[in-house]
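Incident log, structure service

09:12 report received: a user says their structure output differs between two submissions of the same chain.
09:20 pulled the input from the user's history:
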Amino acid sequence: MNNDPIIEGVSDAVGFVGGALIGFWAGRLMGLDVFAPGYGAASIGGIVLVGLGGGLGLQLARRWRNRKQDKKD
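09:34 re-ran on a clean worker, output below:
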């Protein structure tokens, strides 16, 4: 596999940030606020959703990139 580092970096960044934003807004819809004062359950739950969303978005971006590369080969 000969991936372009720019495409790899940009797709990883877009996947991570996009997933984190989806996690953030999903948390807001459930009443979990990342920016709530203190370290209560609402704050921790929001942080967890942002982290999970970012990780899932990154994985989806990598799968998309690998599938695109496989079609090219």
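09:41 both user submissions now match this output. Likely a transient worker issue. Closing.
09:42 reviewer note: Residues 17-67 form one domain. The CA atoms of residues 15 and 60 lie 7 Å apart.
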